[in-house]
Amino acid sequence: MAEFSMTSRAPWLAPALGVIAIVLTLGLAWQAYDRMQTMEVQLARRIGAFDAASQEARAAARAANAALADLQGRLATLEAGARETQNQQLALNAMYQDLARSQDERVVADIEQTLLLAQQQLQLAGNVKAALIGLDAAATRLAQLDKPQFNGLRDAIARDMERLKLLPAADIVSLNARLEVLIQSVDRLKLESEAEPEPRKAPAAQSGAVDTLARFSAEAWREFKSLVRIRRLDHPELPLLPPSQRYFLRENLKLRLLSARMSLLQRDESTFHNDLAEAREWARSYFNARDEATRAMLASLDEMRKVPVLLKDAEIDASLKSVRAARGRSR
């Protein structure tokens, strides 16, 4: 009854409320639409900004990828260069080792050759001085290198040098040259049978007091003495030698000196001294000892007979053994 009364009183209330509801609905709808539009605009803006940012990000990513690719390329190039440098370093190290080994081998070969020459000087010529010069040259070469692997060789050379310095100095080369001079001088020697008579002294002046008979007697005696020549020969069995025998006598003396020369080169001291003694005896017996050439030969033979030619312990085996061991280690 009350509801009916309200409806009958305000018939317009319901439509008004409906209109209000519609208006409110439309307002809300419009507001919602406006918000949606605003949101769409904002969303579109944000999407646009996002797209721009995305494009920038993609561009940055592409740039980063390009930079990364470039860096990777550079890194690969650097790695290749590093590998090449490492390979070159390894090759250089190998070459240096080969060069050092080759240099050591050359040094050892040169020193071995020097020591062999020094050994030949000792064995063939007995020249201790020349051998010492060779050993000193080898020691100087090793001292300049100053490498510890050659210390044993340096010590061996030093010991051999000290031992050789204590040996008697027999200059075989000089003795050989002196023998050659003596052999060539044999043809200039004068035989004893060819010696000229001593010059006759002039007679003393006679005083006027000496009579004629005394002067005649003295003159006759001098003339008689001039007809007789007395010579002193150690070997009367050959008072006068024919030319052929004189030739063979000189040749035999040369052969005796040649034999002494061979004994000298062979270090046969006993035979060397015996040959010199026999050569001296021949020169003294058959040749004019008053002649200057003969006296010079006799003096030279006497001097050479006093020289020892046999060198004991004249060898450098320790140095040669050490250098051969060093050569084996350097390979």
**Beta strands, count:** 0
Rg calculated over all Cα atoms? 63 Å
- The H/E string reads HHHHHHHHHH
* Uncertain parts: 197-207, 229-239
Tally of DSSP helical segments: 10
Distance between the termini: 136 Å
Sheet with the most strands, sense and barrel status:
none
Give the % helix.
Answer: over 70%
Shape: rod-shaped
Strand proportion, as a percent range, falls in: under 5%
Average pLDDT for all residues = 78
Structural class: mainly alpha
Overview of this protein structure:
The chain is mainly alpha-helical. Among the domains are: 94-169 and 315-330, Vps28 C-terminal domain (Four Helix Bundle (Hemerythrin (Met), subunit A), Up-down Bundle); 171-192 and 236-310, no CATH class. It is 76% helix and 0% strand. It has ten helices and no strands. α7 runs antiparallel to α8 (269-286).
Distinctive features:
331 residues, mainly alpha, Four Helix Bundle (Hemerythrin (Met), subunit A), 10 helices, 76% helix
Summarize the structure.
The chain is mostly helical.
